Structure prediction request, 183 residues.
Amino acid sequence: MTTTAATTTSYSLDPMHSRAHFSIKHLMISTVRGEFTSIAGSLLLDNADVAGSSVDASIDVSSIHTGQPDRDCHLKSADCFDVATYPKITFKSKSISKTGDEDAVVVGDLTMLGVTKEVTLKVEGSLSEIKDPMGYIRIGFTAETKVNRKDYGLVYNAALEAGGVALGEEVKITLDVEFVKSA
Prediction:
């Protein structure tokens, strides 16, 4: 067994305790929020050097939920996410660096609608493991980034009579995730 393998811990994302949230300006005056409720992923944590760690995640786009069924249906359509053609959003880390005791930066490739762009996630969370009441070992984080939806081909919009547009271009993404240590 190599030294690297001895210091590396594998975790699986717990989909029951993890969500991918987003928010976007609506009519240039308010913020609309939503989430994707079906996400999967893995974390390979190098306990000796976090820079040797990696994370992979995928989101089932059809799990989008904004609290408005008609809007969710439109977001799944070819006007927006085109779920029939692009059912998944994926993320694969390229680098991870610790920036504080409970802060890190994860740089990686985010792919939506067949377009891949590099994004930087600001991450908060302790590397300390917690044992849950069922005996499983867990670790959790919150990560945030902002993307321009047009960079990924999400160009649907409507002009407003008084000027401006219905949807902003910047989308804030917040990930609240728990990982469970693999057996």
In short: The domain at 3-181 is CATH 2.40.128.110 (Lipocalin). The radius of gyration is 18 Å. The chain has one domain: 3-181.
